[in-house]
Amino acid sequence: MSANDTPARHQPPTAVHDSAFLKACRREPVPHTPVWFMRQAGRSLPEYRKVREGVGMLDSCMRPDLVTEITLQPVRRHGVDAAIYFSDIVVPLKAIGIDLDIKPGVGPVVEQPVRTRADLARLRDLTPEDVSYVTEAVGMLTAELGPTPLIGFAGAPFTLASYLVEGGPSRTYENAKAMMYGDPELWADLLDRLADITAAFLKVQIEAGAGAVQLFDSWAGALSPADYRRSVLPASAKVFQAVADYGVPRIHFGVGTGELLGLMGEAGADVVGVDWRVPLDEAARRVGPGKALQGNLDPAVLFAPRRAVEEKTREVLDAAAHLEGHVFNLGHGVMPSTDPDVLTRLVEYVHTQTAR
Questions:
Q1: Is 26 a known active-site residue?
Q2: Contact between 147 and 19 (Cβ < 8 Å)
Q3: pLDDT at 50
Q4: Residues in a beta bridge with 326
Q5: What is the pLDDT of residue 3?
Q6: Of 27, 77, 85, 163, which one is the catalytic site residue?
Q7: Which of 43, 229, 230, 345 is the catalytic position?
């Protein structure tokens, strides 16, 4: 089932359903190209830094009041066309009892990496009760957002596996790839287990009111197409299939995935996110028909003078002119030192330039 079909289990409110963002995801005509930014709620906003003072990252993800406030901040400030649920990809792992923490300046660190078959037993099923704070926060958000859609959020099985096996961030993924190549059965079982956990986490968000979901496979660009197809695609496809009956748009994004774009669409996404390395018209050729695209301004462009930002934005819009559906975004997340006023002007510029 695609996002163009009638939702079987989840019918969003009419105003949300008819928003520019969800229309673009469904490849329907839009009044303007919708805009949102990955990491739009984050360190670039002074109001975010203020509410996060003295609160750890994981703690902030488990407090519905903070999640609601942080998620709403960029909607208020920038006028973006969608909010994305404030969370972290390791939240569901923490919720099922994995001993991990997000260390400032480092990222997620797992106390006991998953390296053997016995370690799989630590990855139990995720239940809605494990993340009741998510249900509460999404309910609060949808009440506040009105016609603005909320995007649910989760990490893809490969990226979660990379953190679990490596024990933290990695540039080379030597332990994860060693398992993938050396014990493919264990690797497949690990990703299958993570697919179930990820799907359960997305279902909680959708059932609470999220109007779309995005699966972040942040590190999939480290893989060759053959390795992705054989060792990763089945688990990602399982996640997308698990939420297909809800009828909400499903977005798939990774970094450095130019060679994988077609496969990422094949996994079951309705919208394929594209980083800044591949022009959107070329990305559309690689992905093939029947998908919307999201992207793809280089986040570093936002540090250039206003004229340069507008010129580079115009290039993205021109490359997207003949797409079946386009959601304007950056090619990766907002950098922490980005001037928030630049983002606000960018939203206005895209809306003005694409008004139909």
A1: no
A2: yes
A3: 97
A4: 293
A5: 53
A6: 163
A7: 43
Active site residue 196: no
Radius of gyration of the chain (CA): 19
Residues with Cβ within 8 Å of residue 22, at least 6 apart in sequence: 12, 16, 149, 211, 212, 249
Distance CA 243, CA 204 (A): 10
Quote the crossing angle between the two packed helices 233-242 and 157-166, to the nearest 10°: 130
Helix (H, G, I), strand (E, B) or coil at 125: coil
Distance CA 168, CA 294 (A): 28
Q: Burial level of 324, CB count in 10 A (0-12/13-18/19+)? A: middle
Task: Please pick, among 39, 77, 193, 250, the residue that the annotation labels catalytic.
Answer: 39
**The amino acid at 100:** L
Q: Residue 12's pLDDT is what?
A: 45
Q: Tokens representing 77?
A: 């400030």
Give the residues of the chain that fall short of pLDDT 50.
1, 5-13
Can 163 be counted among the known catalytic residues? yes
CB 266 within 8 A of CB 225: no
pLDDT at 4: 52
What angle is formed at CA 342 by the lines to CA 340 and CA 348, rounded to 5 degrees?
Answer: 110
Give the sign of the dihedral formed by CA 301, CA 306, CA 311, CA 314: positive
Q: How many CA atoms lie within 13 A of 277 on its CB side?
A: 11
Strand pairing category for 150-155 and 250-253: unpaired
Catalytic residue status for 9: no
pTM exceeds 0.90 for this model: yes
Catalytic residue, from 26, 27, 52, 77: name it: 52
Crossing angle for the helix pair 184-208 and 157-166, nearest 10 degrees? 120
Token representation of residue 228: 């992705």
Give the CA-trace dihedral at 234, 235, 238, 243, to 10 degrees: -140
Q: Is the peptide bond before 296 cis (omega within 30 degrees of 0)?
A: yes
Cβ atoms of residues 343 and 297 within 8 Å? no
Q: Which two tokens stand for residue 339?
A: 């001037």
43 is annotated as an active-site residue:
yes
DSSP 8-state class, residue 133: H
